[in-house]
């Protein structure tokens, strides 16, 4: 009997071990459960995906016949059922939920449904006194989490909001003589890296790739043999030398696999610039490579038209939006931009279910946008701002030239 008992214990431990291994190495799981809160019951469908650097959870929360769809990115070490509680509000105009996650965390603002449209509370604050009072009564909710309270510090002609900069993120902004390199990791926060002897209003022959800024030698007037490179992380600068002179009448075709492709229209030659290897490869006019979600070739006539590479495919179309970006795969988002007068309203919905369309923010331009994980960096007038579900919109840099010179580019690298 004792041996049988010990065997049962060993088998049970073995079973638990197999279950743990299966769970730990699984790519994710689906869970359906109920949450009772504020005298209401919510049906929760939780779809998790662990095949990425941070755990992803996709939710559909239903009460009666109304559903709220959203997703979060947070390291919960592959835990399940991490949505612990929900605060609920309803009146004649709004129906809202505030998800509260494991650890009593608020990883996103309250979502509200109004006239068939979904919005976050930080965009509605002050529009409904009863809703404001309800939010103020939530013990777990800190309104400062979604309010930009940072103050600016003037550094190198920039107003920098140091508190809003993210760890291990490096922001590059080209200026008339080189580059501003900005990061919390730097002692002085901002480095003004000079590359040119004179002001260069438009640095057309430049590109950001991986952790590098690559730009032609604009100290020359017609042709150049040297390409300047700045490492945004180490602050190192170096040059890559080309055996052939490159005309300033060239253009950047695009970036593929961390290599910059430049076409020289005067000499009808294509260059592949690899900053990590400090190399330049020359392609003759007979083999002009073109990238359209895969490599092909193009004619000299097409190359002279300054056709840019295409390295993203959109599988969702809606004519009411002037721009749609697909970021990520099954666990990512569509970002949708709708013109509203002279500005643009920005919306987002999940790729997985093509649902949960929600308004995020408004911006004056959509020409320069950077996506890093689930962060959105964008230019808004003379400011560079960032959006994330965990804090809303915050300002990083105020630089007056952004509003007047559309040739200024910015880029973000995450280490």
Structural class: mainly beta
Radius of gyration: 26 Å
Helix percent band? under 10%
Q: Assign an overall shape.
A: globular
Oligomer: single chain
| Terminal residue distance | 59 Å
Total strand count, please? Answer: 32
What is the spatial order of strands in the main beta sheet? Answer: 5-6-7-8-27-26-25-24
The tally of structural domains comes to 3
Residue runs with pLDDT of under 50 for 5 or more positions = 18-26
Structure, explained:
The chain has 415 residues and is mostly beta strands. The chain has three domains: 25-145, no CATH class; 148-191 and 315-415, no CATH class; 195-313, no CATH class. Helices cover 10% and strands 47% of the residues. It contains four helices and 32 strands. The chain has helices spanning 2-25, 129-136, 300-304, 401-404, and strands at residues 30-37, 40-49, 56-63, 66-73, 83-90, 95-101, 111-114, 117-120, 153-155, 158-160, 169-175, 178-182, 190-194, 206-209, 212-216, 223-231, 237-247, 250-256, 259-264, 269-274, 279-283, 289-291, 295-297, 323-327, 333-340, 343-350, 358-363, 369-372, 375-380, 383-388, 392-398, 410-414. The strands form seven sheets. The chain has an eight-stranded mixed sheet, with no helix packed on it. A six-stranded antiparallel sheet has the order 9-10-31-30-29-28, with no helix packed on it. Strands 1-2-3-4 form a four-stranded antiparallel sheet, with no helix packed on it. The longest helix has 24 residues, at 2-25. The radius of gyration is 26 Å and the shape is globular. The protein starts with a helix and ends with a strand. Residues 18-26 have low confidence and may be disordered.
């Amino acid at each position: 009997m004792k041996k049988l008992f010990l065997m049962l214990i060993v088998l049970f431990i073995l079973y638990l071990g197999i279950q743990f291994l299966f769970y730990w190495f699984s790519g994710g799981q689906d869970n359906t459960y109920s949450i009772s809160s504020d005298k209401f019951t919510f049906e929760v469908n939780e779809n998790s995906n662990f095949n990425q650097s941070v755990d992803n959870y996709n939710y559909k929360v239903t009460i009666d016949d109304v559903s709220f769809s959203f997703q979060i990115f947070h390291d919960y070490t592959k835990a399940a059922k991490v949505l612990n509680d929900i605060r609920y509000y309803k009146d004649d105009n709004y129906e809202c939920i505030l998800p509260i996650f494991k650890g009593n965390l608020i990883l996103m603002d309250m979502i509200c449904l109004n006239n068939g449209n979904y919005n976050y509370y930080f965009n509605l604050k002050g529009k409904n006194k009863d809703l404001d009072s309800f939010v103020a009564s939530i013990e777990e909710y800190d309104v400062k989490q979604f309010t930009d309270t940072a103050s600016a510090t003037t550094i190198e002609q920039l107003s920098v909001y140091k508190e809003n900069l993210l760890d291990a993120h490096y922001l590059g902004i080209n200026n008339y003589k080189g580059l501003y390199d900005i990061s919390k990791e730097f002692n002085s926060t901002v480095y003004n890296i000079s590359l040119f002897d004179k002001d260069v209003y438009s640095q057309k022959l430049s590109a950001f790739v991986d952790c590098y800024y690559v730009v032609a030698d604009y100290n020359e007037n017609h042709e150049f043999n040297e390409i300047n490179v700045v490492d945004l992380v180490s602050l190192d600068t170096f040059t890559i030398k080309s055996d052939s002179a490159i005309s300033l009448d060239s253009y950047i075709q695009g970036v593929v696999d961390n290599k910059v492709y430049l076409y020289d229209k005067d000499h009808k030659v294509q260059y592949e610039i690899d900053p990590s290897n400090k190399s330049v490869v020359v392609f003759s006019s007979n083999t002009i490579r073109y990238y359209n979600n895969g490599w092909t070739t193009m004619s000299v006539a097409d190359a002279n038209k300054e056709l840019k590479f295409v390295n993203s495919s959109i599988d969702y179309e809606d004519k009411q939006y002037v721009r749609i970006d697909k970021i990520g795969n099954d666990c990512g988002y569509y970002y949708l931009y709708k013109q509203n007068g002279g500005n643009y309203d920005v919306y987002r919905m999940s790729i997985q279910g093509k649902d949960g369309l929600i308004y995020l923010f408004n911006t004056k331009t959509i020409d320069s946008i950077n996506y890093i994980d689930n962060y959105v960096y964008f230019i808004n007038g003379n400011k560079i701002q960032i959006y994330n579900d965990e804090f809303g919109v915050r300002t990083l840099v105020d630089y007056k030239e952004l509003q007047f010179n559309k040739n200024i580019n910015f880029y973000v690298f995450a280490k």
